[in-house]
Every structure is written in C-alpha cells, then in structure tokens.
Fold this sequence. Notes:
Chain A has 320 residues and is of the alpha/beta class. Chain A contains 13 helices and 8 strands. Chain A has helices spanning 3-18, 62-65, 78-89, 111-118, 148-151, 154-157, 181-184, 186-192, 196-207, 215-219, 244-257, 267-271, 279-293; strands spanning 24-30, 37-42, 72-76, 98-102, 127-131, 134-139, 142-147, 169-170. In chain A, the strands form 2 sheets. A 5-stranded mixed sheet of chain A has the order 2-1-3-4-8. In chain A, a hairpin with a 6-residue loop joins β1 and β2 (37-42). With 143 residues, chain B is of the alpha/beta class. Chain B has helices at 20-29, 51-59, 80-98, 115-132; strands spanning 11-16, 38-43, 64-69, 105-109.
Amino acid sequence: MDSSMEQELRKEARKLLEEGKVDHILGFARGSLKFTATPFITKEKEEVASLVINPFIVNNLAKFLIELPGRVGIVAKGCDSRSVVSLIQDNQVIREDVVIIGVPCSGLIDIAKVEKLVNKDRDEIDDIALQGEKVAVIIGGQKTELPTKEVLFEHCLGCESPTPQEYDILVGKPTNAVGDKELSRREIKKLEDMVPEQRWAFWKEQLSRCIRCYACRQVCPACFCERCFVEESQPQWISPVSQWQDNLMFQVIRNIHVAGRCTDCGECERVCPQNIPLRSLSKKMSELVDEMFHYQAGIDKNAPALMTAYEPVEAEDLIM
Amino acid sequence: MGSKSEWEPRIVGFLCKWCSYAGADLAGSGRKKYPANVRILKVPCSGRVDPLLILKGLRLGFDGVMVSGCHPGDCHYQTGNYRARRRIALTKKFMEYIGIPEERFKASWVSASEGAKFAQVVAAVVKDIEEVGPNRLFAEDGQ
Lengths: 320, 143
C-alpha cells in the first residue's frame, strides 16, 4: 500500500465516473484524527483526489452497498470483497450494479496497539510505515521498529485472502500479508481449554458490560434484516434493557443469524465501545461452519447461502 | 432450590406435527410409559424452530429443550428438516462453546410410527438432565 497505488486508484475511480460506469465511488479518505481513515462517498470526479490507501482503512465498506442507490464503485480489501460476495449470495447486492476496485491488503494496523507499545499518544507519533515483518514508527525523528504481528488486528493475522478474489479492477500487485493463524485465534484457544462453567462465567462477565448500543450489529455487513429480533415486541424475545442474560442471548442469536455470512472482518469487535471480545464469538462460529459444512463465507458468489442449502447426510452424530 | 428428590426436570419439546407429534400420540395410545417432564409444543415443521425458541426456553428457566422432527428424506415440506439440521447443529455446537452443557438441548428424529422411540428419547433426555441438575444458567448468580 503506497502512494503509487493511491494514484492508480484515483485514476481508475475518475475514469469510472467520467465514463458513467458508476454513480458513486465508495472508498476511504483521510480521517480527522491522525492515523485514521474514514468512509468516503462521492459523485464528483474532482473529489477522487481525496481517496487514500494505507494500513488504517479499517472499515468494512460492504455495509454501505445495501443502501447506496445506483451503481457503485467500491474500494475493497480482501475482507470487504468477501462481504460483497456474501451480500450477492443473499441477494442484497446485484453483482452487475457494483464495480469492485480490489485493493490487495497487507494487513491493518491497530493504532491503539501501536500507542500502547511505544507508550505515546498518536499525536506524538510522526509516521507509521508497514514494511513486511516490521512496522517502522517515527517519533521525534527517532525510528522504532515493532513486529508487524503485534500491531496488526488479530483478524488480519488469520486472513485467508488479503488480495480480493472477486474484483473488476485490481489496483497494485497481489500481496501476501503477514499471517499467524495461531495468534489470530489465541483468545478462542484459551476459551476452548476451559470447562463449560468457566466459559459461561467468562461470557457472563464480558457481556454484563454490554450497553446494548448495537454498534456491532449496525456495522456488520452480514446483519441486514430490516427488522431485528431484538426490536420485536410481540412477542418480546429479549428485554431491551441491558442485563447480562439478555445481552448474552442477543450475541448468541446474532452470531447464529450471521453464520455463513461472517467473513471475519473484525468490525464488531473493533467498534465495541466496551471492548467485549466479540470476534471470539464470530470467528468461532465461522470455524464451526467450516468444520461441519465445509463452507467459507464470501468465496463463491454462485454458491447457495449456507442456511439455504444442505447435504443429504451431515451432522447426524448430533441428533438422536 | 430443594434437594434433588424434590426437583423434577421441566423440559420444553418442539415437535413437528407431521411426525413426532403423532409419534407422541402413538406412545400414549400404545400405553408406552415415559417420564411426564416434557411440555409439548406443536410446530408445523422442525424447520420452524428458530434457535431463538431454544435459547428462550432456557432463558425462561426450562431445564432442557428438545426438538424432534421427521427423519431425513421424510419431510412433509421436502427440505424443512434438512435446513433444521444445519441450524440445530450450529446452535448445539455454539451453545457448547458459550458454556451451556450439551445435555440441555437435544434433537431427535421420530416418525409418526415410532411411539416406542419417542418414549425412549424422552426417557434419555430426562435422564441426562437429571444428571446435570436444575437450569440455573440465567439465574442472577447464574452458573
């Protein structure tokens, strides 16, 4: 992810708008805080100069496709493109109405991790550069090198396809991100090693902090029901009041609902204001889906969605 | 909560009207004996059973939840039980991961002619739940 990729992206985006192939360009622009990016939507070809590509383009833009009218050119990292494919499988997005501008991704940097490791606020940091196995952090002219594995988001370490597999235009060259499957699922491993009572106690404690802001649901590209079960009142499935029992039920059901759609983009965990390890739920669900039904979300746009398909013989060991 | 001898498991059972519900009927008319711990709810198909119903049963304090439908290939609606099977499998495994003992949720295939099997299934489910004890998962001091 360097400036030549940015130039190429802006050129392609401009061309798409000029040729009338898309009504909107959906991408990222520089954020208002240092080392952040923000989702950016434009119709104007002059504004494509605002588009950026860097290791801080953390949002999953696929969510915007559900409501954005007309034809859209979307800047998509590996995870975004998987989410787009998943939405196509669920008939939420029409393939012909999107132009996927694929951006090979080298992993996304969690700025909070960098701040913690260098023990400095982001305003005091001059520059952060992702260079393969190392991340160079410049503070007051001094360069500090951090291991990439320790500053990337954990979902990035487990990413199977950092280069989008579904795209119309590919900007830059395919990449191989720094991965570490073990590290990516270490929180899940810890839970698996516990006995059920400990796991229950763990989730009870974690979810008693939930304030039910629904940020996880709102940001999730797999959560697109027009009416969510948490808002139903007749019958009222769960109480709208934040209490751990209902918070727990909300998360369990939400994860079952997005089974086979979750592409492990990690957005739920990233946006959680209470730092609840939500990815330990969604990632585990994706693993179960793969183990039992050999299905990975967002890989094949022509495959039927997980819950609409079946094999004549499967999972029979779980049934009496 | 009283001693174990006073406590009787309360189980909610979602039975498909085309098979297991009739199977339960047959168990009755065939005078098969089985524990009277299951509160039966008739559903049009095992595919109707949203995981929400299963969780809600436990949330309301039932000690166990059972779902029973037609054998694979026998669904009145062709594919309802196949879809139910994926949903049941994921729900079961995911609930285990959260820390809900697997004994609390059981699924079975019971046809309309299997009154004896229905009696066996209920007996087995009740026995398992008696072993794990009352459901205190969602109690304020839940465990």
